[in-house]
Amino acid sequence: EPKIILLDEIGAGINRTLLGKIAEKIKALNTDRGLTFCLIEHDLDYVSRLCDEVIVMAEGKLLTRGSVEAVRRDERVVEAYFGGGKYEGRA
Fold first, then answer.
1. What's the CA dihedral at 37, 40, 45, 49 to 10 degrees?
2. Residues paired with 39 in a beta bridge
3. What does the angle CA 73 – CA 8 – CA 68 come to, to the nearest 5 degrees?
4. In degrees to the nearest 10, what's the CA dihedral of 20, 77, 8, 27?
């Protein structure tokens, strides 16, 4: 009887229809059985369907945490994952 389930990049290589069914099952297990899920996932649209809070890490360190919308707007996240290398944690 697990209390937490860890999932690593479940969206990699899976079509959107199946990914939607997986999301429905995750939500049902959370609601019906009280299971907590920890996802490692880069697809923020998918994460936003499932998660109340997001933790973003870069280079093994906590970068930020908060709602998906707050994380999307965070300049450190934009720089670390999409930007031109201005992220202060880089060597």
1. 0
2. 7
3. 20
4. -40
Q: What are phi and psi for residue 40, nearest 5 degrees?
A: -105, 115
pLDDT (tens digit per residue) in 25-81: 999 999 999 999 999 998 888 888 999 899 999 888 999 999 998 998 898 888 888
CA 49 to chain centroid: 10
Q: Which residues, other chains included, contact 6 with Cβ-Cβ below 8 Å and sequence gap of 6+?
A: 37, 38, 40
Helix spans in 38-74 (H): 44-50, 68-73
- For residue 90, what pLDDT band results from cuts at 50, 70 and 90? very low
